[in-house]
Amino acid sequence: MFDGTAFCPACGAARAVADVQASLLQCPACTTALAAVAAAGTPMLECRTCDGIWLDASQFEQICTSSESRAALLARPPASRVTATERRIKYRPCVRCGKMMNRINFARLSGTIIDVCRGHGTFLDSGELHAIVTFIHGGGLERARQHELDSLKEAKRQLDAAKSSPRRTRRSTELGSERWDAPSLSDLMAAIFGR
Questions:
Q1: CA 123 to CA 104: how far, in whole Å?
Q2: CA distance 122 to 182
């Protein structure tokens, strides 16, 4: 199978973590070799030194969408070798491609900052997987969706208000007739963002 392929082209079976040669992949946090483990029925790569976890994109999605996987992970005590105050902000390379990953706040509201490579997967520091599962279990994704909907509705309301009552200026032409000018781009931006 080619690297990055999720399913076998011959039989259609899902790719197993054993195929990635875990001993060749290094932890992006401490450069120790990652070990293949299974937690809650999900194969993942774990660093035995710093307790960091690498999840391929499909595996991370499975954990986020499967209530059984989340329940099994909640039953496991969280790894907490490193506290949040000891962490320094550092961009890390992707386990697969070596490019620097993006740091994002999971679901924009969770407060858990994770390292993501869009094409390959997610690296989670010690305790972050448990924090994300707890956030999802507590209804965090629903709150995040509602927050996003509220933000979109507010932006639409402001845009509609700007369209219905734009600031207009009167200008006379040479012939003495009056004309209304359309609002400028800066007027629209001010109406939308309240500047």
A1: 11
A2: 47
Domain locations in the chain as residue ranges = 17-141, 167-195
Q: Which of 114, 112, 108 is nearest to 143 (CA)?
A: 108
| Beta carbons of 192 and 162 less than 8 angstroms apart | yes
Q: Any idea what the Cα angle at residue 177 is, between residues 173 and 178, rounded to 5°? A: 85
Per-residue model confidence as pLDDT tens digits over 91-104: 999 999 999 999 99
> Position 75: which residue type?
A
The one-letter amino acid code at 68 reads E
> Residue 122 belongs to what H/E stretch?
strand 121-124
Find tokens 């902000």 and name the residue.
Answer: 89
Sign (positive or negative) of CA dihedral 82, 74, 147, 121: positive
Backbone angles phi, psi at 180, to 5 degrees: -100, 130
Summarize pLDDT for 7-54 with one digit per residue, the tens: 666 666 565 544 444 558 999 999 999 998 888 778 899 998 999 999
The closest alpha carbon to 27, from 111, 104, 125, belongs to: 125
d(CA 60, CA 127): 15
Local structure of 159: helix, strand or coil:
helix
